[in-house]
Write a structure and sequence with these properties.
It contains 5 helices and 5 strands, in the order E-H-E-H-E-H-E-H-E-H. With 136 residues, the chain is an alpha/beta fold. The protein has one domain: Rossmann fold. Strands 2-1-3-4-5 form a 5-stranded parallel beta sheet, sandwiched between helices. Strand 4, helix 4 and strand 5 form a beta-alpha-beta unit.
Length: 136
Amino acid sequence: MTAEPSPPSPRETTILIVDDEDHVRDLCKDILEAEGYVVITAADPLVARRIAASQTVHLLLTDVVMPAMSGLELADLVEAARKETKILLMSGYMTAATKASGRAILAKPFTVDALLGAVRECLTVRRSPFKRPEGR
């Protein structure tokens, strides 16, 4: 029997939170920093894309519905540039496209425990079980 991989230490883990709503972004940041994670935030997906391209980001926690670029588009771009970055979507709108993306999804509104559990689960899995099949 193979042991489950343990999640990386929060102090060694950088999470990029992208949401156009200040209160959601700030709340997630406060919760994750209280657990010891290194947190970077961005209100704009285009800024987030530059951040993810310029430094190590272990987890991209992104809203799906945003102006300028959707979280799904951002996730595709980040995955293409940095295969090792895990993706966790959050959305109050469970659209067919969001579900079909094959990525982990955290439904809004969520509890502190739900956020922390989803983050730990995404970080623990060596290769995300939520990856979409090749050829999409």
